[in-house]
Amino acid sequence: MTQILTLMLVLAAGAGLSVEAGLLGPLGEAIGHMSATMSIFLVGSLLLSLVLIFTRQRGVMSLFAQPRWLLTGGILGPVYVVVISLTTPVIGVGATMVGILCGQIGVSMLIDHFGAFGTQKQPVDRYRLLALVLVAAALWLIR
Questions:
Q1: Which of 73, 86, 124, 128 sees the fewest Cβ atoms within 10 Å?
Q2: Could you list the residue range(s) of the whole structural domain that residue 54 is in?
Q3: pTM attached to this predicted model
């Protein structure tokens, strides 16, 4: 049951990313891609600040005690948002999301295979490779 709920949550988050891409394209065209990216992170930061104020969350102060390389994920978020802001008006939401998915799956398989960042190792097998090939084929078809 937990696995089904987790998968449903992941699917909902993926749907949200597509909606975000659909919103960011026109916003980036209207106010500039960097301004659109900043606005997305500003709204998100304000929302998370409220959540942190009204819930007991540990970790904000211990953030600075963590190895600096763990914070590099903060660089990737804005890069991702700028990319979807730039590409969505050109190739559409579908091709943008499938392209992102293809990149995510490819790198995720490498991370899993080698157990990078402390993740549990999941060897790449022919089924996983086939899944990547099928997503790449979907990208070629949807472009």
A1: 73
A2: 2-142
A3: 0.83
